[in-house]
Amino acid sequence: MTVAGSPGVSAFERTLDRIGSDIVEGRLPPGAVCTVEELTGRTGHSRSVVREATRVLGGLGLLEGKAHVGHTVQPPERWDWLQPRVLRWSLASGRRDATLLAIRELRAATEPECARLAADRRRDTDALELRSIGDALLDAAAVQDVEAFLDADLRLHRLLRRAAANPLLDRVGDAIDAALVDRVDRLPAGAIDLDDALLHRDLALAVERRDGDAAAAAMRAIIVRTA
Prior knowledge:
Blueprint: H1 11-25, E1 33-34, H2 36-43, H3 47-59, E2 63-66, E3 70-73, H4 84-91, H5 96-121, H6 124-142, H7 146-164, H8 167-182, H9 194-208, H10 212-226
Antiparallel strand pairs: 1-3, 2-3
């Protein structure tokens, strides 16, 4: 995962991450009013870069700007929690456990139905790709290749959402992707359970044979094991 401070990360990205992280961590608490000058001093970057960052943070619901006042930090209930940036900052903060619980609850509420719809609506090309991803998961589990396993896992979830052909479920999936990507740096070597890979293969095969009930059941089992 690319992080602020890494080679090649722009001044804008570093500024955005610094201010966003400070808000999510509470170093800039709700109600605090920040001027561009103050944020320039906090981040060490130019006024133009800070202005662009505050514009993005306003779109994410973290800041509200008013002329002649400044930028007011907004409470968490105003944040756009389905935005990957917000989730990334939250997963890296003291809010991590609560954020993971919220994501698990979101998964339980949406992913089994997404799998059911994918089984009903998938194309033949989707079925072939799912089978290939299922094989990749098994191969990665056999050699305990964490990065390959999680990459295949992410591709499987994205393909299911595409096959389900529901744009709202696809939008919610951005939050789920953030949680899956977050696992890359945290799952230790040797931690892949072969049963997890087998469940994913069962899911892929259920979608391939258009068995919506089996696909939903496999997805529920995957979510429980992940929790």
